[in-house]
Design brief:
Chain lengths: 235, 294
């Protein structure tokens, strides 16, 4: 589904992503784990086309190299992204936030139906559809951000630290959702601080350190390897 | 204060509202453009002036006020479209000062161009027959054209409100003013949105120019005073707020009209005093959000 080769990117003059290659197969859950400042967020942002200074090869769903494509056309190809800190639009209602996820999608004409479906699979959002988004708890806002990214039915979704600062019961709900999405055939690329939870649901994982990938393995394998978790993931 | 009757007071209120319409139309565009593009458009007064001159020109060609009124915002908006696309766009992401300097210089260029084409002399723009005269509004006779101004402005403001609050394009505009990046992530080509908002803002400024033409003299410099007034209104109302632009525009109009009734010598000063008071009490303006400048 997603293939990345020798990806490099810079913020101003700092060299962040220093030649990363990774792939995510259709229907897989893949995690990128590593310390704070390892370059995880920048990797996702570069794949989404949000880091202007970058090079390398990114192909998605059989495409040519999309490294120079603008962000919005990557969305049109079916690449969804839930960035760090949720980024819901605080002054809009929950429903308006969900509509925003559909404004440039082919599914826009079925807006009402899709919002109905979302209300069924996200019961927490159902009774809050007409509430202003910022009045919800952090976890509910995160659910909204994920629901908004899923509204357009993307082929693959990338999530940056979705469990950060969220109460445990909602974290459970969220990881159950990831498994359910996988069963429905969605592809997921996950960046997580919550290493154990992430590895439990992941088919494969990459460990990132100082802008390069130091280890690739199956989720179960890395989960068993306490030493490597200690070395690269201790915050 | 002798001789000031209730009728005179109410009449002056209406005069203030009519005066406020031009402020509102100018501030709405200025505020939208700032709120979404973070561009402080110093050429906004020049677009207003160009609107008046295009109006004069079209009146000369067609002889029809209504045709001119409809065509002016289209012509000026198209000019805005071209300017955003080729001059402003390359400056995004370089901070607020680059587009500010560009539009400042652009205003000078537009004024000089109009001087070259139309000369220094003022042009006249007459109120059409059907809109001249005065009507009885209960407390006295009020110029019909000023009522017309209030009507047209209400219509434009209502249309803009519908567009921004009720359409999915408006949803993109509201979200994009707050977080342009998330809008891109959700598949929107944000540069198109900026283009259209710039065109709408400048088009409405052009409309304000042609509407004001019969009341104020049409001269190449006419945009500079109105630009200052529009900035005062935008600051009072809160940068980036549509409601703020409307309320503050009317408020400034009424304050100026009332001051000129009671203390004529202070009329020009009154709006600045109002701005200073608002800034002291509420630095973000009446309807502004804190920290919009990030």
């Amino acid at each position: 589904m997603l293939n990345v080769e020798n990806l490099e990117s810079w913020y101003d003059r700092s060299y962040i992503v220093q030649g990363i290659s990774l792939r995510v197969g259709k229907g897989e859950i893949v995690s990128i784990i590593g310390r704070n400042g390892a370059g995880k967020t920048t990797t996702l942002r570069t794949i989404m086309g949000l880091v202007p200074k970058c090079k390398g090869v990114v192909t998605f769903d059989g495409s040519d190299n999309i490294i120079d494509e603008p962000t919005h056309t990557r969305f049109q190809r079916g690449l969804g992204f839930v960035p760090e800190e949720r980024r819901i639009v605080p002054a809009l209602t929950v429903r308006e936030n969900l509509r925003l996820g559909l404004v440039s999608s082919d599914l826009k004409s079925k807006e009402d139906e899709i919002i109905e479906e979302i209300a069924v699979s996200f019961p927490r959002l159902k009774e809050r559809l007409d509430q202003i988004a910022e009045t919800m708890s952090g976890g509910e806002q995160q659910m909204l951000a994920i629901a908004r990214a899923l509204a357009s039915d993307p082929k693959m979704i990338m999530l940056d630290e979705p469990s950060e600062g969220i109460m445990p019961v909602l974290v459970d709900e969220m990881f159950e959702l990831f498994v359910r999405l996988k069963e429905q055939g969605k592809t997921i690329l996950l960046v997580e601080q919550n290493v154990e939870r992430a590895l439990e649901v992941s088919d494969r994982a990459y460990i990132l350190d100082q802008g390069i990938i130091v280890r690739e393995s199956t989720g179960a394998d890395l989960l068993a390897d306490k030493e490597i978790q200690e070395k690269y993931c201790a915050v | 204060m002798n001789g000031i009757t209730l009728e005179l007071f109410v009449m002056q209120m209406f005069t203030g509202l009519a005066l406020g319409t031009v402020f509102v139309l100018m501030a709405v565009g200025l505020s939208l453009i700032f709120g979404l593009l973070t561009v402080v458009n110093f050429a906004h007064g020049a677009f207003y002036m160009v609107g008046a001159y295009v109006g004069v020109f079209l009146m000369g060609v067609t002889g029809n006020f209504w045709v001119s009124l409809v065509l002016v915002p289209i012509v000026v908006g198209t000019l805005g479209l071209v300017i955003e696309r080729f001059l402003v766009r390359p400056l995004y992401g370089r901070g607020i000062d680059y587009p500010l300097l560009l539009t400042f210089g652009l205003a000078l260029v537009l004024v000089e161009l109009v001087r070259i084409i139309f000369g220094l002399e003022g042009q006249s723009f007459d109120v059409p027959e059907v809109l001249s005269g005065a009507v009885n509004i209960g407390v006295g006779y009020f110029p019909l054209y000023r009522l017309f101004l209030i009507g047209v402005t209400s219509f434009i403001v209502f249309a803009l409100w519908l567009f921004i609050e009720k359409t999915s394009y408006g949803l993109i505009i509201r979200a994009g003013a707050r977080d342009p990046e998330i809008v891109r992530i959700l598949g929107v080509d944000i540069s198109k949105v900026w283009l259209i908002v710039f065109a709408i803002g400048t088009g409405v400024a052009g409309l304000a120019g042609v509407l004001a033409a019969p009341m104020r003299s049409v001269i190449p410099d006419m945009g500079s005073t109105v630009l200052v007034e529009a900035f005062v209104v935008t600051v009072v109302g809160g940068m980036g707020s549509l409601v703020g632009a409307v309320v503050a525009g009317m408020l400034v109009g009424v304050v100026v009209a009332m001051t000129s009734l009671f203390w004529p010598s202070l009329a020009d000063l009154s709006m600045f005093v109002l701005m200073a008071v608002v800034l002291l009490v509420r630095p973000q303006g009446l309807f502004g959000q804190k920290g919009l400048m990030g």
